[in-house]
Amino acid sequence: MLTLASPVLLARMLWALLLLDASFSAQKGSWDNPTCTQGVVSVPRGARAMMACNISNPFSNITICLSVAARTDCQYIFRNAPQGNTSQDGWHLRVQGGMAQLVIEDAWDNQSGQYKWRLQGGQINVGITTLNVSGPESPRPLHEVGSQSDMVFVIPVIVILFILVLGMWAWCRRRHSLKLSNIPQGFFEVNKISQAGPAPWRSGSVRALGFGDPEIRWFGSQAQTWQHS
């Protein structure tokens, strides 16, 4: 009885192995085969940094966290990020098909550390990339330098123009005051001119020239007056 059962058991085991091999062969062509940026990415402060992870199949979602040497936990930057572009606090994640790029336009010290990627494609894979930010600040682009130089030039020019305008105003005001102080006393209002003898100007008040009132000309001790026509 044992002799009859042994061939049947052997056949079932052989069939199971064939199915397993076929399944393995079918899945072998759809493995994700993840590849991520190797080594340490080093950039100066303020420079652009980029890390990437790629797989053979399209991404379903990606989770990235940052682990710093001084901390034991991993700070999440992106959780289950889908296809497309996603941004968070200076990090920019671009996912297209089976390609994913993590871009930092202006890298600083707090963005240094080990980045752990959870890659969801045909399978779940884990990748690790490392960023090191150090050294002097990266030179700024020429257009930014130019705009700052323009501001440094424009502000003093505005201040100088303001001072010149203020000085001209004060000078004109002082000059006008000096002109007024040089006008003869006879041009100002004279209160009650009274003199013996018949004269059209013997009483009343006479005002300065140029205001439509009687004009006065002084000849020694006498005054003559007439109305403008």
Short description:
The protein has 229 residues and is of the alpha+beta class.
Keywords for this structure?
alpha+beta; 5-stranded mixed β-sheet; 229 residues; disordered C terminus; 5-stranded antiparallel β-sheet; 2 helices; 12 strands
Architecture overview:
With 229 residues, the protein is α+β, with helices and mostly antiparallel strands. 29% of the residues lie in helices and 34% in strands. It is built from two helices and twelve strands. It has helices at residues 2-28, 142-181, and strands at residues 35-36, 40-45, 49-54, 61-67, 75-81, 84-88, 91-96, 99-104, 113-120, 124-137, 215-219, 222-226. A hairpin with a 7-residue loop joins β4 and β5 (75-81). This is CD7 molecule. Residues 1-25 form the signal peptide. It comes from Equus caballus (Horse). InterPro entries: SECTM1. The chain crosses the membrane at residues 151-172.
Overall mean pLDDT: 74
Number of helices: 2
Task: Tell me the strand order in the biggest sheet.
Answer: 1-3-8-7-6
Could you give the distance between the termini? 155 Å
The proportion of strand residues reads: 25-35%
Main structural class: alpha+beta
Radius of gyration: 48 Å
Multimeric organization: single chain
- What string gives the helices and strands in order? HEEEEEEEEEEHEE
Shape: rod-shaped
Q: Which blocks of ≥5 consecutive residues have pLDDT under 50?
A: 190-197, 199-229
Helix content: 25-40%
